[in-house]
Every structure is written in structure tokens, then in C-alpha cells.
Design goal:
Number of strands: 6
Largest sheet: 2 strands, antiparallel
Order of helices and strands: HHHHEEEEHHHEEH
Helix content: 25-40%
Length: 208
């Protein structure tokens, strides 16, 4: 969420486009302080999940700033293994990093930049195939038998929180010392090195 709010706060146009999309939900998360409990409705999870720009923003944040950038290691079997053409002896720890995979320029053009639009499809075959390949390399939650079992819940909560914030507020940066260096801590869970992001929240009612 830190990096997501930071990137949206740096891109007011993107923030505005996302708000427009969120307001098109059949039950938008508009804050109504005087509404009764029964009048407050959450958007349908499937409808929230179908929003292309919200999905693109979240996917790109998780690609550029994976929550677990450290190596996810395995041990080769006793008889060894051949990985990408390389013979690895048995009992050797091997691993890869989501951060490294997500910087593959052959899959993600201008890989070091935050470009949510790369995840948006125009429906044409080339676009569909490109996104399919990016999804194949997308490793924010790992994959296979040891994939994060909470990935669906985490994704839904991130989308819900983002929708609740940006339906009702505009955010701008007050202090992002440290985070602007694009550095994550060298740890299993990679927080921003600066560990600080101060934002100003302005109600969209004050803007309109």
C-alpha cells in the first residue's frame, strides 16, 4: 500500500482516471457519514475485480515493488538437476527473486519504470499474448505448490482499500524522504528503506 499510494500521489492524472473508474461501480465506496448501517453497501467482489485500471495499477505496483523481493530458495535433489541448460549438482541451494524476474526487459519493456498501462488490453491478439506472457513472469506471490496461500485475499483487500481511499480522497506527497530512492530493504519482506511516507488527504468534495 505504501508504494501504491506513493505512485498514485505522484501521478494525479492516473489518480483521477482511477477515481472515475471506481465511481462507475454499481455500489461505489462513497463515504456517507450519516448513512445507516443497512444503507452502506460494499461493491460486489467480482465487479471490483473486473475493473481494468485498478487491476493494472495493483499489478504494476506488485511488479515494480514486489513485497518479497528476496530469494525463494529450493535445494536440488540428490541426483542434481538441469536448470535452463545448466547442470546443478545435488544438495545445492538455488533460488530466484521476483524482483529480478520482474525486470526482464524481454518481457517488460522499460522494466524499471512504473507503467500500469502495460497491463491494459485492447483486445487484439498481440496485446492479449503480451499480457499472457507478463502474467507468466509475474511472481509477486510465487507459484506452484509453495505459492502464497493468501494471495487472493491479499489482492482483494488491496483493491478494496485502494477503492475506499481513492473514491473519496485525493492524495499528494508531503514527505517521501527515502522512498524516492526506489530502494527496498534487503530482507524477505522488502519495505522502503526510508520507512516513511507522509501524504495529504483532500476530500474529493472539496475539489468539486
Amino acid at each position: 500500500m505504501t508504494y501504491l499510494k506513493w505512485e498514485l500521489s505522484r501521478n494525479p492524472g492516473l489518480q483521477s482516471a482511477l477515481r472515475k473508474e471506481l465511481l462507475n461501480l454499481s455500489s461505489p465506496l462513497v463515504y456517507t457519514p450519516n448513512a445507516s448501517q443497512g444503507e452502506r453497501r460494499l461493491p460486489d467482489p467480482k465487479e471490483l475485480d473486473s475493473l481494468p485500471l485498478l487491476n493494472a495499477v495493483l499489478k504494476e505496483v506488485l511488479r515494480v515493488y514486489p513485497p518479497t523481493p528476496a530469494l525463494l530458495d529450493r535445494v536440488t535433489p540428490p541426483g542434481g538437476a538441469v536448470i535452463e541448460g545448466y547442470a546443478i549438482p545435488g544438495g545445492i541451494r538455488v533460488g530466484t527473486s521476483a524482483k529480478v524476474m520482474h525486470l526482464n526487459e524481454e518481457v517488460f519493456s522499460d522494466a524499471g519504470s512504473f507503467v500500469p498501462e502495460r497491463w491494459l488490453s485492447d483486445g487484439k491478439e498481440e496485446s492479449v499474448n503480451r499480457i499472457k506472457e507478463m502474467n507468466r513472469w509475474f511472481w509477486a506471490f510465487g507459484s506452484g505448490g509453495r505459492m502464497c496461500i493468501g494471495n487472493h485475499f491479499a489482492t482483494h483487500m488491496l483493491k478494496s482499500i485502494t477503492a475506499a481511499i481513492y473514491t473519496n480522497y485525493e492524495t499528494t506527497i508531503v514527505d517521501d524522504e527515502g522512498i524516492e530512492l526506489f530502494e527496498q530493504e534487503d530482507a524477505f519482506v522488502g519495505e522502503p528503506v526510508g520507512r516513511k511516507l507522509v501524504l495529504k488527504f483532500r476530500s474529493v468534495n472539496d475539489i468539486n
